[in-house]
Design a protein that fits this description.
Elements (H helix, E strand, L loop, with lengths): L28 H8 L3 H17 L7 E4 L5 H8 L4 E4 L3 H16 L8 E4 L6 H4 L4 E7 L8 H11 E12 L1 H10 L3 H6 L19 H10 L3 E8 L13 H14 L11 E7 L6
């Protein structure tokens, strides 16, 4: 995956939650890109997805619905591998940035322009905007920014074709608690008030979720969990992030070695899942 470089700036429009209780990122493209992708933690996240997705998914150049596609890295990753991608994103700023970056990559020959189309749509409206059914849906780092993540899983399951795959990556509430303890925020961890408020420019998720919740919500919607991995299992707990390339390579090797081993994956900052919808009975 290729991190996106952004040089444009936007005046924040609003940091309030939507009526549905969701957090959008209009006005925060620069901060989002700088904080999450132009930093070692973002580079590691993309490197781990590049490593894990071919292991955890059956990829046959099938059409992909990328829900909450953000700055467009994941959509680009699939397009580069021959998939036709529909990228849905509610933030106009994010969508404009992603489409511009995709156009540059397309002009450079990374993929054909017609492989990517865009929907300015929140997750809740996708049953009307992109009903499918879809054989492959990706929804990465989205559930933690919606007010009703359980309902979001139900919506995603309804869009999935029988035999289809759902690649879901979520912000891990248990890792957030552990991180707060390490930082000395003992009362915050003890009270379990870990959610962000979704206001100002803070990027603490408003709805971090647990592995147990994901298991329950998947089962409630008739989905089968095929695989799970932790992303950034070690990096966020380091006292001194590696500065030398050799240390960074060692950290990446550690992340790859333990991302699917119990108990280590359980404290990944993100949890990456593959769910499938069983084939319909004949």
């Amino acid at each position: 995956m290729h991190p996106i470089d952004t040089s444009t700036s936007h005046t924040p429009k609003s940091y309030e939650l939507t009526q549905a209780g969701d957090r959008y990122f209009d006005g925060l493209v620069d901060k989002f890109s700088r904080s999450l992708y132009q930093a070692p933690r973002g580079e590691l996240r993309l490197a781990m997805l590049d490593y894990l997705l071919p292991q955890m998914l059956r990829l046959t150049e099938q059409p992909v619905l990328d829900v909450g596609g953000g700055l467009g890295q994941l959509s680009g990753w699939f397009a580069e591998r021959g998939h036709a991608v529909t990228m849905a994103e509610p933030s106009q700023d994010m969508l404009a940035h992603a489409s511009a970056w995709h156009a540059e990559r397309s002009a450079a020959g990374a993929w054909l322009p017609e492989q990517l189309r865009y929907l300015a749509s929140p997750l809740q409206l996708l049953p009307q905007q992109a009903p499918g059914p879809w054989s492959l849906i990706t929804c990465h780092a989205v559930l933690e920014w919606v007010g009703e993540p359980e309902q979001a899983v139900q919506t995603l399951a309804s869009l999935l074709a029988p035999g289809g795959q759902l690649s879901l990556m979520v912000f891990n509430r248990d890792a957030l608690r552990f991180s707060n303890v390490i930082k000395g925020n003992l009362q915050k961890a003890l009270s379990d008030h870990l959610e962000g408020k979704g206001k100002r420019q803070r990027l603490t998720p408003i709805s971090p979720v647990t592995h147990d919740e994901m298991c329950q919500w998947g089962a409630d919607n008739g989905l089968v969990m095929q695989a799970v991995a932790g992303i950034r299992v070690f990096q966020d707990y380091l006292r001194h992030p590696p500065a030398e390339e050799s240390e960074q390579a060692s950290l990446l090797a550690l992340e790859k070695q333990y991302c699917r081993q119990d108990p280590h994956w359980r404290l990944g900052r993100y949890l990456l899942y593959t769910f499938t919808k069983p084939e319909a009975d004949v």
